[in-house]
Amino acid sequence: MEFVRNAWYVAGWSSEIDQELRRFTILNEHIVMYRKADGTVAALEDRCPHRLLPLSKGRRIGDDIQCGYHGMTFDCDGKCVRIPGQNNLPASAYVDAFPVEERHDIVWIWMGDKDKADPSEIFSIPEFDDPAWTAHQGDALHLKSHYLNVAENLVDPAHVSFVHPTTLGNASSENVPVHVSTEGKAIVAWRWIRDSEPIGFFKTFGGFTENVDRWHYYYLYTPCTAVIDFGSAPARDNIAEDERNKGNRIFALHFMTPVTDSYTIDRWMHLRNTALEDETASDSIDAMFRIAFQEDKEVLEAIQLEEDRPAKRRPIRIAIDKGPMVYRKRINDMIERERTHDVASNTTPAFVYHD
Ligand code: FES
Ligand SMILES: [Fe+2]
After folding, report:
1. Phi, psi of 87 (to 5 degrees)
2. Which residues line ligand 1 (CB under 6 A)?
3. Mean pLDDT of each 10-residue bin along the chain, 355 residues long
4. Please, what are the domains in the chain?
5. Cα(first)–Cα(last) distance of the chain, in Å?
6. Ligand located closest to 296 CA
7. pTM above 0.85, yes or no
8. How far, in Å, CA of 73 to CA of 89, rounded?
9. Residue nearest to atom 4 of ligand 1 (CA)
10. CA-to-CA distance for 118 and 85, rounded, in angstroms?
């Protein structure tokens, strides 16, 4: 299975990375990450070029890593700076180094061509520092599921009525159609459920007892970031679609990191425009999300087990699948573009002529 490589992925929460050498697996690659003396994060291929011992099994010498087998030492750019017992350092003695950027307590890593890494393309979260909003980091949810299935679950408002009946959905949304549109890099699937009973989430957190207007906007940004904008406002206020800030509004952010072909980590956090700085509210939102995401995990892992078995026929598509279908098409196109570009820019001739 191929991945989009020219993209920023979340490598971890800032709190997951410290002075210790730690191994992370991202897009099937083993990477050792650690904090340098200046506090910034280094990310290197976790495999010594000599006998392939993972560098994470070695030890740090200042900002360098010394391999635990024969002591070859690499700096944080991946360059070999020492080979015990010899003076020359061959050009092949290096490990790959990955560009890393840290912001909003999140560590991002670039997995593709280094010269294409542009930090201005990292997903921006303007509400993070906005006093009208409160940001709160949640968990890292481990899923034995392919990331495309995880992602399509995040552009799929229709499942909440059935998978999350106590928190994010209820029966009143079962038959409300889903609209799908695209906005730049985002695929947006959304719907409003007007004048109906509040869902469990907003009974507990928002304290709504009377009927509300509720919205779900699922923004899925290729390749691996999703923002779910959902909220409720009293039905009697009859707010317009672009007046969502008047209601209790929450953004659930999901950063998916494909680990292997059948394993994904979904790091989630949330932002809200109400109950600002209220730690109890953060805890109660966390608790409800943990219930809901556990329900998603069960569904997604059961699907993966079926996908791994021999297929009898192709899965069918139904009306609510538009968002997931656009997403998969875009991902395929991105992978295809990277592949074609690689061929076009490859200056090595396909044939080698011997004289
Ligand atoms: S395996 Fe790393 S120095 Fe030999
Ligand atoms: Fe869900």
Report:
1. -100, -30
2. 48, 50-51, 53, 67, 69-72
3. 93 98 98 98 98 98 98 98 97 97 97 96 95 97 97 91 84 82 91 91 86 94 96 95 95 98 97 94 94 96 96 90 93 93 50 40
4. 8-117 (2.102.10.10), 123-331 (3.90.380.10)
5. 39
6. 2
7. yes
8. 11
9. 70
10. 40
